[in-house]
Amino acid sequence: MLHHTKNKGDIAATKAIADLTLKGYLILTPVVCEHLPFDFVAYKDDKFYKIQAKYAGDNRVVNRTIWVDKNGIHQKKYKVKDFDFYAVYLPDIDQVVYPSINFSGCYITTQIPNSATPFYWWEDFRELTEEAAKRTYKEFGVDLTTRKVDPESRINTRKVERPSKEELEKLVWEKPTAQIGRDFGVSDKAVEKWCKAYGIDKPPRGYWVKKAYQKLE
C-alpha cells in the first residue's frame, strides 16, 4: 500500500507535468528520483529547470522534504541550489502554480482573505515565477465590511490591448501560447480566449513538444 503523502506527491507531479507540457515544455524525468531534491526537469527555449512538485492542501509552499523509512520519520530543509522552481498543486482550485525556491515557506492565496494583510495571489504564479509582488484586498474591489466585490472597481493589472486577428493568427504558429502571454503580460488562458473570440485555430496538441525534439536532433 502506498503512503498517503506519496500519493499526494504523485498527484502534484502528474498535474504539473501535464500542465507544463501544454505550456510547451519538454519534460525529463530521472530513472531514479527517490532521494533527489527535485522531481523532474522542464526544458524550454534552450533552458533546463529543476522542478519540485508539491501538493498544497493548505496553500503553503513547503520548505522541507519529509520521508519515512524503517528508522522513523525524517525531514530536511531545502537549500537554494536544490531546485529552481516549485510546481505547487492547489487542490481547492485544481491549478498548478510555479513559485521559485525563493518563495519557500510562503502561502499562496486562492481566495481573497478577510484581512488587510498583503498576500501572494495564485494567478501571479501561473508561469515559472522568480518575483511577484504581494496583493491587497483593494486591488480586488473588496469591501472588508460587507465582503462584497465590486467588479467595476477591481484593478486588473493584466489588462492590455488585444492584438489584431492577423497578428495573433501569426503569433500562435511562431511560439507557444504561454510565451505569447508573457510577451503581452497576460496569462495563457487570456491568449486562448483571444483565439476563441477571433475564431483562430491553434497548433494541435504536442506540436511544440515535437518541435523541441526536432531541435535536439
Automatic annotation (TrEMBL):
Residues 3-102 form the PD(D/E)XK endonuclease domain. Signal peptide: none annotated. InterPro entries: PD(D/E)XK_Endonuc, tRNA_endonuc-like_dom_sf. It holds the Pfam family PDDEXK_5. GO terms for molecular function: nucleic acid binding. This is PD(D/E)XK endonuclease domain-containing protein. It comes from Amazonocrinis nigriterrae CENA67.
